[in-house]
Amino acid sequence: MIYLVHPGAAAEHRKQIAYYEDRQPGLGRRYHAEFRTVLAAICEAPHRYRVIGLPAIRCLGFAVFPFDLIYREAGGAVQVLAIAHHRRQPGYWVERL
User: Fold this and answer.
1) By three-state DSSP, how is residue 46 classified?
2) What is the pLDDT of residues 8-17, one digit of tens each?
């Protein structure tokens, strides 16, 4: 399945890569690898993960890093709405719908 990343989510992702890479060389690459793993799992079976809002907004958490990938399936594609840190204000990404 194809995926599309909202510009806001893409900016969040780039910011986190830079942040982790600045903290420790190679950590940004580990964060990105986990992002790719989570995204691949979602693309393989998008309906498998829990619904957190309507219309059919779902999320899957990262295993190591404190983030959830917020997405929905629309038009045969996975739309990544946010890569939300667990401590960030819940629902800040709703305006991206």
Assistant:
1) helix
2) 999 999 999 9
